[in-house]
């Protein structure tokens, strides 16, 4: 490794075997640390509010909300592991090879679980909109909880197999001291790309295209019947509108997820193909964009869901500590 005079090493005492730090101004470094730290704190706090709300208030114990709970759990852990990305933002890893392997493993498990949960959310909305009469029979709390458990278990098992070499021998893929990378064979990379990105995205897009097509036709039908309906009919319309609103809200969540996810997997494709055009700053940006999605989800809930705003008020004002607060009306 050839060093310039003004290059700064991660481990100066190791000289040629140490990685070099990317050059950046002090102001840029400070702003980066403040921004990422703020996002990490906001992500963990907001998703903790979502977790407490859905877990505590019995009115929110619905199949759809259990899927949101799973997503909030994964987003909460994303906020926690952002600390390690902050450590790595200067291009140097000081926490050891074993910690690096554990960080990579947890990050990939969370990513797989998030993608799987997004697919489950799309399936839930598909059944609710396209087959509303049998939704309560097909989608029960027990089945949703089983699907969520299977999603997380599969993510753990899948990544355990995929990252087996990295877990068995931490640091085997690093080229210099201070680097934290995960590598594998080309076939495994392509398989992961398909199962973690191409397949789920294709399913998500197809299902939601169908959902919004049916939702649009139902909206037109409701407008045409809104002039003269019986009391029973008006209740039916209200139920349909609530399902449509949920579909739109979760559609926004899915769309934002895909926008934040695509650059990350494009980056993975470039690495898998052996590309070298992505520098450290670009890699850090796409990773942080993916993590930032976990902060956006609770903000979307706060904007669209009145129940989340009510729960937030109850939690912040400590009314949640009162007896029987779990029975409170938050809808």
UniProtKB/TrEMBL annotation:
Tell me the domain of life: Eukaryota
By its UniProt entry, which CDD domains does this protein fall under? 7tmA_TAARs (cd15055)
What is the recorded membrane topology of this protein? Multi-pass membrane protein
Q: Which PROSITE patterns match?
A: G_PROTEIN_RECEP_F1_1, G_PROTEIN_RECEP_F1_2
* Gene3D superfamilies in UniProt: Rhodopsin 7-helix transmembrane proteins
> What is its subcellular localisation?
Cell membrane
Q: Which InterPro entries match?
A: GPCR_Rhodpsn, GPCR_Rhodpsn_7TM, TAAR
Tell me, what is one Gene Ontology molecular-function annotation carried by this entry? Answer: trace-amine receptor activity
What is the first-listed, main subcellular location in coarse terms? membrane
The answer to whether UniProt assigns keyword GTP-binding to this entry is no
Q: Which residues cross the membrane?
A: 30-54, 66-96, 102-123, 144-163, 193-213, 247-270, 282-304
The UniProt entry's GO CC annotations, sorted and at most eight, read: plasma membrane
Q: Where is the G-protein coupled receptors family 1 profile domain?
A: 46-301
Q: Which family does it belong to?
A: Belongs to the G-protein coupled receptor 1 family.
Q: Under what name is this protein listed? A: Trace amine-associated receptor 13c-like isoform X1
Protein source organism: Betta splendens (Siamese fighting fish)
Encoded by which gene? Answer: LOC114847205
